[in-house]
Every structure is written in C-alpha cells, then in structure tokens.
Amino acid sequence: MAKHIDVPEDQPPMRLDRFITNAIDDLSRSRLKTLIEEGRLCLNGEVISDPSAKVRPGQRYVLELPPPRAATPQPENIPLHILYEDEHLIVLEKEIGMTVHPAVGNWTGTLVNALLHHCAGALSGIGGVERPGIVHRLDKDTSGVMVVAKTDRAHQGLSKQFAAHTIERAYMALVRGGPKPKTGRIETRLARSQHDRKKQAVVRDPRSQHGRHAITNYETLHTYGTAPGQPVGSPVASMVECRLLTGRTHQIRVHMAHLGCPLLGDPVYGRDRTFRKITNANGESLKDFNRQALHAAILGFTHPVTKEPMRFETVLPADMRKLINFLEKLPK
Questions:
Q1: CB 162 within 8 A of CB 169
Q2: Which one of 139, 141, 196, 272 is the catalytic residue?
Q3: Of 37, 196, 235, 331, which is most buried by a Cβ count within 10 Å?
C-alpha cells in the first residue's frame, strides 16, 4: 500500500523522518526510519534512504508500506541448542545473532518462533502472544544460556526468582582497558539516554529516582597486553566476569562503559576506531569482530516445580575464543 505525502511550499526546514511522522498519525518515527532505510520512500521515482535528509518544500513523497503481519508469531523450524528439557521448562544456549522475541526489524527467525515449533503449542502464555515462555532475555548479539518456561506454573516460579534476584547469572565479558579496582560492585540507576532513545544511560544525579536500580558485581580474571602511553600495569584489554543482581536492558554493557571499559566490539557503547587498528605479534587486528564480546556463561536457579537446584555452564563461543587468542599475542 502506498501513501502520498505532500509537502507545503512554505514548509520550514525539518528532518524528513520527523515531517513524515507528523504527517502520518499511525506510524512511529522509529518504524518510519526503518522503512526509509529499507528503501521504501521515493521522491520523483528516486529512492530516498536517508531519514535525516531535509524535507523538500512543494514536493510529493511516496511511502510504500509493507503488508500487515500476523498478530502472533508463527512457528519456524529453527534448530535449538538445548541443554536440558522437561515438561516444565527448557534450558538452551542462544546463538549469536538470534533475537529473543519478534520486534520491528526481526519479525521472523527469533527464539520465540523456534520455540513455538519445538514445543508445538506447549509454551506458557503469561508472557503474551509476542513472547510466550520468555522470563528473561539476552541481546541479539549476546550468546549464552537461557531458561524458558513451558507451563504457567514454571513461568510464575521463575519470574519470582528473577524478581527476588536469587537467580545465579554470570557473564564473561572482554573489555577495553581494565576496571579499577579490579574487583568491585557497580550500583546505579539506568534510564533511556536523552540523546539516543536506543541506548541506556547511567542516571548521574545520585539523588534522582529516575530510571531503574541496577547492580553488577564484577571481577577481573585476565588482562592482555600493555596499553601504550598509559601508566605501568594498564592493560590493553581484560576478561571480566560480571554477575547480575538485577537484569536491566544492556546493564553490563552500560555499566562497563561507565567504568571506562566498554565491551570490545560493542557497536553502541564501545565505538573506538583507534582500538580496532591495534595489531598483535602476528599482524592480526580486531576489525572483523563486530559484536559486543559478551557471553552468558552460567545460569543457576531452583526448579520452579521440583524445587531441585539447577546450574548450567557453557563454554565461550568460537568468535570470543578467537578474540582471546588475538589478545594473548598483544605486546606486554
């Protein structure tokens, strides 16, 4: 379906995505930005793919809208790496690049789509039609262990444990530099960034009640290389174990960046072109590592039905092992 958007002759300067969002009531700016970047906006037959371009007065834009999608996710036969399964729950290792539940830009190929096929109707519905069985999640490019509820009883029991912070969750992170002190606790409030709605940020005012309470305990396990031009003992990078007491969006990524040690490869919180140019003794560089170096390594909880203690530990994925091999060859 095509929508025609006419721009008045006296239209003052404005970003294209903002103008069209104001002109179309039922379309969010983020959704419109995605449609523009997908090449669905034209002006005089020419595709406009830059949402930040200035709107042109007196012109007519044509926006091609995709057909509406199904209200509920559909089952898809996607292989899952299952570590444990019974009639109440599934513990699995999520792969890099898999989104947990459907959202704009990822309506298919998600963990929920795979679970709907694997469980064939036997998933807890408490999470709603978009995320059945999901009691916690990992970012798209974070790998590691997750638990999914198959029954409402399991969903309620697991949700209570997450809310009470009794779940054991340990993540392995490769970060730039090294945290000071090497072991510590980060306790802040996190809220959406005022400058970028896709990012989370630490609330700077310690008296503010804005945002949500977030606690991360961390311990430096290894350091790699010596940072040139820095004080003695300053590493180029470190492996840090992070243990979550709360589970906020991007919590580890924001907290480590807050310490001045953003995750290697993090495209949102850790951009550093200079760091990517560093080479090791073999002449290798980090230019090909394009995700946050974060892996959910340990998940421990009490089975919500049988009450048995359960604990699962997974090894680092191949790309992080390759990254460590690179870091071990950095000059000391």
A1: no
A2: 139
A3: 235
**Beta-bridge partners for 187:** 215
The Cα 34–Cα 85 span in angstroms is: 37
| E strand or H helix that includes residue 325 | helix 318-327
> Are the beta carbons of 314 and 295 closer than 8 angstroms?
yes
Extended strands (E) in 65-113: 81-85, 89-94
Sign of the CA dihedral running 191, 196, 197, 198: negative
Q: Which residues contact 47 (CB under 8 A, 6 or more apart)?
A: 39, 41
Query: For the whole model, what pTM was predicted?
Result: 0.77
- List the one residue out of 53, 49, 28 whose CA is nearest residue 39: 49
> Rounded to whole angstroms, how far apart are CA atoms 123 and 153?
11
Residue position matching structure tokens 């570590």: 83
Per-residue pLDDT of 256-273, as tens digits, reads: 999 999 999 998 898 766
Is the distance from CB of 5 to CB of 24 less than 8 angstroms? yes
DSSP category for residue 83: E
C-alpha 299/C-alpha 94 separation (Å) is: 13
Residues 145-177 pLDDT 10s:
999 999 999 999 999 999 899 999 999 999 999
Asked if 203 contacts 212 with a C-beta cutoff of 8 angstroms, the reply is no
In the residue annotation, 288 being an active-site residue is answered as no
DSSP structural state of residue 26 = T
Name the pairing type of β-strands 89-94 and 81-85: antiparallel
Please name each of the domains of the chain with its CATH number.
2-64 (3.10.290.10), 81-163 (3.30.2350.10), 168-307+323-327 (3.30.2350.10)
